[in-house]
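Newbie here. two chains, one complex. Structure please?
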Amino acid sequence: ETGVTQTPRHLVMGMTNKKSLKCEQHLGHNAMYWYKQSAKKPLELMFVYNFKEQTENNSVPSRFSPECPNSSHLFLHLHTLQPEDSALYLCASSQVAGSEGNTIYFGEGSWLTVV
Amino acid sequence: AQTVTQSQPEMSVQEAETVTLSCTYDTSENNYYLFWYKQPPSRQMILVIRQEAYKQQNATENRFSVNFQKAAKSFSLKISDSQLGDTAMYFCAFMKHVSGSARQLTFGSGTQLTVLP
């Protein structure tokens, strides 16, 4: 049981497809994050949202488009991806104040394979 | 910028034994937090333990404890009475203290721990 839920857990898409990853947090947090985990690489922070506002975009290619309609939901829209984009995409959330804000909680990840 | 280094890509330990995973970090910050996360084959990133840099006392969580050496910028994880379910990739992570904004974690490259029956 996790307070951060990601769907789908597995996704296979062609390079010309458009798909989306969804994340929902049930922890009452107000910051949400997308991380990318590729084989043999440290986790890479992609996007940060603070109270629905994007505060960080770590030079992510425009074929990845995030959306945060409210503090509980985060999407990652995918279009014209490349095979090297195949990876585990992890969503996370946290508070932004108080001692509880000093811990980030992760979802189970969405495995993406681009063919 | 912060960096986190885990110099042991793989480790193994016999069930019921004790193992220590190493982590060093580099930062100019004085107020920060350090974490150990584990990632089992299910791939969910699970928080194991957290340490506040301003606290001298080492954090403990049941069988998990840390040895935090602030001056040396070292943060090792000790797992006592290792269990088969402890088999996972373990990540050391750094987060500087901020107030009122989203947090950012910097991760090490991970240590794959295998507990042997």
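Moderator note: The two ends of chain A are 31 Å apart (CA to CA). Chain A has a mean pLDDT of 89. Thread marked as resolved.
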